[in-house]
Amino acid sequence: MSQADVYTILNQAILTVLIASGPILALALLVGLGIAFFQALTQIQEMTLTFVPKIVAIFLGLLATTPFIYATLTKLSDHVFDLIMHGGP
């Protein structure tokens, strides 16, 4: 296995992590922006108002996107295990 092969596998792993975590991070960003706009408009500066809706949204998002995350990670692990089984690309 050459350095280029290792670089390719690491590149695929990083891309897989970004793709798998993207929907949850985007959801947290959107909920955070919505809460920030709400706080700016109403001038309510309650600390629990920022955390509780974000946590609930993240948990609901995880429930909704778990099959997608599982499929993405399974695809990468199958590819890596195939490379291990065959001794390289």
Automatic annotation (TrEMBL):
Keyword Membrane listed: yes
InterPro entries: Bac_export_3
UniProt keyword Ribonucleoprotein, yes or no: no
Pfam family, one: Bac_export_3
Subcellular location: Cell membrane
Transmembrane annotation, as ranges: 12-39, 51-73
Bilayer topology annotation: Multi-pass membrane protein
Entry keywords, A to Z: Cell membrane, Cell projection, Cilium, Flagellum, Membrane, Transmembrane, Transmembrane helix
Family of this protein: Belongs to the FliQ/MopD/SpaQ family.
Protein name, entry field: Flagellar biosynthetic protein FliQ
Source species: Acidimangrovimonas pyrenivorans
